[in-house]
């Protein structure tokens, strides 16, 4: 099976609690709270600072719903009956028995989740085998991207971030007094990495992308010439203030096709798998627990 990097659809095999309640059903199959508990515990092991809460559990439930529907479709397509699927599954089971993992009280649930993950991978591989991304697709994607950005500009931004308006105003006044941006940024920004770099990011942002993703920021700095800066801007939650500086401005410079080919191919694969999953979810019968 081809390795597709769509981690949002793939969940590792996890253990669950004994006290479980159904949180949702997918085409009649129940997802219980023990699965949610297990994912939370696994995430917290990797990130002890992670805060458990309704928002996190809602997102985990959403992912499990998608993963379950995809696994069901893979079984309907009989992808679990392929020699490759059976070989991977049999080898995993043999390894589990060798390590004694099959004796754990939670092994049955862990194994079911592992199978679910494997079915997700099989579904993704099947989608791309039936609708592969070829050189012509990649070339067209590159041409479309070139046309989209033709005649547009990109900017290299600097940023000074402060916790209060007073510091932002002081930084702004020093910039107006012709002090260098790097000097002022190093003095006032609360971003430790920015203190080392003088607040200037190494990369460039196409203005068309900024207009789509951050319209407020685009409105503030989109028409500023090189060497100019914005007035202090308050973050949406009101907790921070920022001044943005246009360190450089130039026409968009796309890398050559051969430098982008692999990344574009992966992106197109992800889009095709995502479209297949979206279509599947539109037909799935998902019911939250009452």
Describe this structure in words.
This protein is α+β, with helices and mostly antiparallel strands. It folds into 2 domains: 7-135 and 263-288, Porin chaperone SurA, peptide-binding domain (Triger factor/SurA peptide-binding fold, Orthogonal Bundle), CATH 1.10.4030; 153-251, Roll (Chitinase A, domain 3). The chain has 11 helices and 7 strands. The strands form 2 sheets. The protein has a 4-stranded antiparallel beta sheet with strand order 4-3-6-5. A 3-stranded antiparallel beta sheet has the order 2-1-7. The radius of gyration is 25 Å and the shape is extended. The two termini are 38 Å apart. 22% of the residues are buried.
Task: Give me some keywords for this one.
alpha+beta, 290 residues, Chitinase A, domain 3, 11 helices, four-stranded antiparallel sheet, extended, Triger factor/SurA peptide-binding fold, three-stranded antiparallel sheet, 2 domains
